[in-house]
Amino acid sequence: MRMTESQLAQYRRDGYLIFPSLFSAAEIGVLRAETARLSAIEAETVIRERTGGVRSIFRVHEADGATRSAAFRALVRTPRVLGPTRQALGTEDVYIYHTKINTKPAIEGTVWMWHQDYGSWQRDGCARPDMGTFAVMMNDSTEMNGALYVVPGSHKRGRIEPYYDENTSYKFWAVAKRDMIEVLRSSPPPVPIVGPAGTCVVFHCNLLHASGHNLSAEDRWHLYISFNACANAPKFTAQSRPDWVVSRNTAPLPIEADDAILNSGTEPELIRAPSPI
Ligand code: SIN
Ligand code: MN
Question: Ligand 1 within 6 A of 97 CB?
């Protein structure tokens, strides 16, 4: 799949592009069954909220490791993901920087503070902002369940020097309050990425984004597939962050079959049962 010229122009102008209902209910059923299975694993790639629920499951796209998944490995290689991502990054040679499922559990799932992904990734040693993220909503995404918000056009501001935020269970580099107030007062209103399960969004690594608390009764399951241009891979040192957040596998990712999720050998979720209390 390729973005049209006008879609690509929109991506370049706004820093993001939404693809409504890109994955079918059957495909989402497979991915949800996998997310439920992976949520029960205890490993360093599974990060928990302070209150106990799962916050993030990293490294679901490789063939090895505790959180490997044939279905997610198939998903990241589909033309629907890789076609637009290659166009967004402006090169055919892209690799996965990391994958994570942000499960944002019902009631306890907390905020992701305003940030630019390149705030962290530049610190990892990636010289240029030739990076982006393709996100897949695995349930209906609403403002009440903690939708992702983006500030249209904010990628054009370039990288804003971040501070290290330690207030959530996943510490990371966020944009300071003073800078963020200035951005919000001088930008178009933030846009929530809402839509039915299967909706996707691709966004630039300097786009300002955030999400709030999940106030709803159901978990909010989003997959974030972050990409880098192969030519922009960092040099690895003893101080580099672990492989599950800064992948050492920098080989170009090949496009594979578009129907591979359904053929990954995973039984789909049968009914959308409410998650256990
Ligand atoms: C992220 O920006 O990496 C995560 C945002 C979210 O899960 O809402
Ligand atoms: Mn982010």
Answer: no
Name the one residue in this structure whose structure tokens are 């597939």: 225
pLDDT value of position 54: 92
* pLDDT confidence of residue 173: 95
Domain boundary assignment for the chain: 5-232
Q: What is the mean pLDDT of residues 11-25?
A: 97
Residue 78 burial class via C-beta count within 10 angstroms: exposed 0-12, middle 13-18, buried 19 and up? buried
- The ligand that comes nearest to the alpha carbon of residue 112 is 1
Q: How sure is the predictor about 266, in pLDDT bands with cuts at 50, 70 and 90? A: confident
The CATH number of the structural domain formed by 5-232 is 2.60.120.620
pTM (2 d.p.): 0.96
65 Cα to the center of ligand 2, angstroms: 23
In contact, 86 and 258? CB cutoff 8 Å: no
Ligand 1 atom having least distance to the Cα of 147 = 8
Q: Which ligand is nearest to the CA of 149?
A: 1
